[in-house]
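pasting for the record
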Amino acid sequence: MDALSMLLENVHLCETKYYCLQGSGNWSYSINRKDTILFYLVASGSFCIMVGDKLRKAYTGDMIMIPNANQHICYALDHNGDNAKPLDDTLINCENHRVALNDGSDNGTSNSCLILLECQYDKEMIRPLLSALPSIFPEHQDQPKSRFEVLEVGIKLLALESEYPRMGKTAVINLWASIVMIECLRTYVENLPEATDSWLRAMKDPYLAKALAVMHDGPNKNWTIHKLAEVAGMSRSSFAQRFKDIVGIPPLAYLVDYRLRLAARYLRLQQKSISRISERVGYASDSTFSQAFKRVYGVSPKTYRQQHQKSLIKTS
């Protein structure tokens, strides 16, 4: 399996909500979200989106990802986005997934249909990935053929799920949102310039990608710099230096970080004993695992699990 696939193996989107936004006239709105990933799929027409100081124009067939959603503004292409009204309450109270956007003039100067996906995610597992991504991407218009195909299939799927409330609806929508994310991410990684300082460049590095894939595939294995260098097809010293230069941290530091994030996920899922988790993430003993976990998370695995369980009870 390739490195990006392995990286995303334990990254799961959940609680996906979707809306069909139909714009006419000089419409504009703002959305303010935290700890949310947003996707815009342009079914027809065009619009502008501004995230921070990043402005992007989007057209039919475009797919846009906002990985660290906070406040952003969207508006009709021939508008300036001034006096954009918050759309948050409208989305929360939307029952049929459809929202009409207009300025009340009915002048028809701009028409567009946008599909908005709003997703929650496992913050620990996706943290390194989100830290390496821009506030919006792709940052420029980019319309490979595959995107049109994904968009067309996705819109039909959402239409069917809206019309027929079948069992497994939530799972289907979450999985499709994950497909949209993968499509956006691989296009982003494929187009990263060689000079970029993003550690995601390692995903397409002919040497490092192999090492990353095996670390994610077998975090429980007794990996050493020498073994990882052999997988990468490099000398020990060259591999260690290349990994640190591109990823930003040494290979074994990356492995430890991944092991503990994975362990934290297992603890939150409440599906395995602490001993079993320790074994699955590559620690020889429970005490060694507990010490490593406490250094990073400040509490023991047992306390971390209990705290998470209490937080779930409070929010339920």
